């Protein structure tokens, strides 16, 4: 096939979709990015970033958001790894049933999923009912609109992503290698750290990246379970943009959110199994 | 590390944590109480009746359905050629093209929604519903391109080349030879993309205006004002529909292998 034909074919194939993303995805992003550095008189300024970064509420919310991601991610690994490992060892039939039970929540509306936690953690919810039946408390305890509620909600929201990512990485760990290690006298724990973990490490990094960045940018969970009382970066940004009409602050938060996500995305990839052992 | 007891216990706890809330929400939707209470007293279908009687839920359901269909079809129409180009041809800058078309999945949805709102208000004055459609289409690209590419990789392109060398036009060869072999991949992409659009909150959150909202946004608005099991009933309906669609798609197309 000649090159001219190929060039034209490529242009026809990639052009329309490329143009769409250029106009309706990249341009708006660049526009907002540029906006955050404009000073109104045609010059460039970092003043807006200074204002937001010096704001006490912003710093509190930023640290809180990172803290919650730092709690949720290890918990997702702790529960996701054993589950993913066990699933890869099951017979195909059983495995596909469990697989679809993991995929189902992922495909269900996050609003519907998060609402369940109101039924569980609310004033008249299951947890408070149980506490009162057991006479552990007289008055209902406030569980909603707390950091704990958001952490629980985020963990349930992102668990399927962790399990699926780990399960597909563990698929590639050959059973023979594992058995060889065990028969040569390695303990189970030792086999995990020396064989299974290094061989599925890329999947672990991928899962950690997806869950961590997901926690930082999630909106629905903190909106429902934290409300205006416990703000995160996402709910703060929405509040600045749509309630307080403070476009500048919302823009700066948007850029900080992208920056944090991209740094994590690229930063976590630097971890390679080789660097660990 | 064969199937030890500890492993089974942790896995069971994980599944209980993952799926328990679904059971609870369905139970609470049949409540006879007037407010959210657990355990619910009595049994009634009043909340289901209420969901169907609230006009805003019906209106926004149709908005979600239409936006989802339009955005999914557009993302497929533009995404299939991209997937085809990436699997079929080797060219300079391919990894950059792949990065660009997967980037709507990496950039936080909230930021995409916000930037579209800012951009549209400042630069153009297009109606909000068009903005909603464009925003949804942009975030569906990564799904359609990825799923259709995976399906194309399982197809032997040599068959298409044979058709072309035997005198078939490239376009005809695509529809006669390639398309029938990636039909199930395209169907899987359609379902994944539609569900993604239907459930989306971050994009829709900013592209909502007077009279224009999607169902998830309307649910969030309702929850701010009322504390009753109406949302349980609506959530239960959504959960059951999702189960049916996902199970059906898994049976017929095996969508889990594309995830």
Mind sketching the topology for me?
The complex is a heterodimer of chains A (277) and B (259).
Chain A: H1 3-35, H2 47-54, H3 56-89, H4 92-107, H5 110-121, H6 126-133, H7 147-170, H8 175-183, H9 188-199, H10 201-217, H11 220-225, H12 233-243, H13 247-268, H14 273-276
Chain B: H1 5-29, H2 46-53, H3 55-88, H4 94-102, H5 109-122, H6 128-153, H7 157-165, H8 170-199, H9 202-206, H10 215-225, H11 230-253
Helix pairs in contact in B: 1-11, 2-11, 3-6, 3-8, 3-10, 6-8, 7-8, 8-11
Can you walk me through this structure?
The complex is a heterodimer of chains A (277) and B (259). Chain A has helices at residues 3-35, 47-54, 56-89, 92-107, 110-121, 126-133, 147-170, 175-183, 188-199, 201-217, 220-225, 233-243, 247-268, 273-276. By secondary structure, chain A is mainly alpha-helical. By secondary structure, chain B is an all-alpha fold. Chain B has one domain (46-258): MetI-like fold. Chain B contains eleven helices and no strands. At the A-B interface, α1, α3, α4, α5 and α7 of A face α1, α3, α4, α5 and α6 of B.
Characteristics of this structure?
heterodimer, A: 277 residues, mainly alpha, MetI-like fold, 14 helices, globular, B: 259 residues, 0% strand
Q: Average pLDDT across residues of chain B? A: 87
Main β-sheet description of chain A: none
Fraction of residues of chain A in helices? over 70%
- Derived from helix and strand composition plus strand pairing, the structural class of chain B reads mainly alpha
CATH homologous superfamily title of chain A: MetI-like
| Biggest sheet record of chain B | none
């Amino acid at each position: 096939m000649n090159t001219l034909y190929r060039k034209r074919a490529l242009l026809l194939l990639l052009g329309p979709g490329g143009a769409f993303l250029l106009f309706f995805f990249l341009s708006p992003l660049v526009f907002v990015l540029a906006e955050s550095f404009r000073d109104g008189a045609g010059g460039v300024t970092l003043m807006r970033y200074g204002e937001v970064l010096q704001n006490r509420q912003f710093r509190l919310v930023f640290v809180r958001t990172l803290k919650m991601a730092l709690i949720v991610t290890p918990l997702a690994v702790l529960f996701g790894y054993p589950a993913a490992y066990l699933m890869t060892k099951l017979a195909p039939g059983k495995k596909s049933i469990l697989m679809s039970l993991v995929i189902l929540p992922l495909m269900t509306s996050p609003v519907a999923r998060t609402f369940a936690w109101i039924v569980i953690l609310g004033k008249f919810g299951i947890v408070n009912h149980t506490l009162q039946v057991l006479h552990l408390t007289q008055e209902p305890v406030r569980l909603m609109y707390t950091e704990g509620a958001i952490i629980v909600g985020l963990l349930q929201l992102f668990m399927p992503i962790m399990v699926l990512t780990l399960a597909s990485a563990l698929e590639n760990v050959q059973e023979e290698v594992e058995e060889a290690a065990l028969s040569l006298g390695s303990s189970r724990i030792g086999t995990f750290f020396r064989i299974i973990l290094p061989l599925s490490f890329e999947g672990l990094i991928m899962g950690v990246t997806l869950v961590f960045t997901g926690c930082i940018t999630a909106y629905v969970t903190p909106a429902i379970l934290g409300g205006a009382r416990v703000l995160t970066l996402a709910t703060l940004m929405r509040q600045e943009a749509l309630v307080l009409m403070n476009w500048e602050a919302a823009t700066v938060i948007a850029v900080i959110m992208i920056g944090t996500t991209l740094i994590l995305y690229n930063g976590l990839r630097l971890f390679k199994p080789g660097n660990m052992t | 590390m064969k199937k030890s007891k500890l492993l089974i216990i942790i896995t069971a706890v994980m599944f209980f944590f993952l799926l328990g809330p679904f059971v609870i929400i369905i139970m609470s939707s049949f409540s006879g109480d007037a407010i959210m209470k657990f355990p619910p007293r009595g049994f009634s279908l009043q909340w289901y009746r209420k969901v169907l009687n609230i006009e805003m839920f019906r209106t926004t359901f149709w908005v979600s359905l239409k936006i989802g269909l339009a955005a999914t079809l557009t993302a497929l129409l533009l995404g299939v050629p991209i997937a085809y180009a990436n699997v079929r041809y080797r060219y300079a800058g391919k990894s950059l093209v792949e990065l660009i078309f997967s980037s709507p999945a990496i950039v936080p949805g909230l930021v995409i929604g916000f930037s579209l709102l800012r951009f549209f208000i400042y630069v153009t004055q297009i109606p909000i519903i068009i903005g909603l459609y464009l925003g949804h289409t942009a975030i569906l690209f990564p799904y359609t391109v990825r799923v259709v590419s995976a399906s194309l990789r399982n197809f032997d392109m040599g068959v298409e080349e044979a058709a072309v060398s035997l005198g078939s036009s490239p376009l005809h060869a695509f529809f006669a030879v390639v398309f029938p072999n990636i039909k199930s991949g395209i169907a899987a992409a359609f379902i994944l993309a539609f569900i993604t659009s239907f459930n989306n909150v971050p994009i829709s959150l900013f592209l909502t205006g007077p009279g224009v909202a999607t169902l998830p946004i309307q649910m969030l608005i309702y929850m701010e004002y009322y504390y009753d099991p109406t949302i349980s009933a609506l959530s239960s309906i959504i959960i059951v529909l999702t189960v049916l669609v996902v199970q059906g798609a898994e049976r017929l197309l095996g969508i889990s292998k594309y995830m």
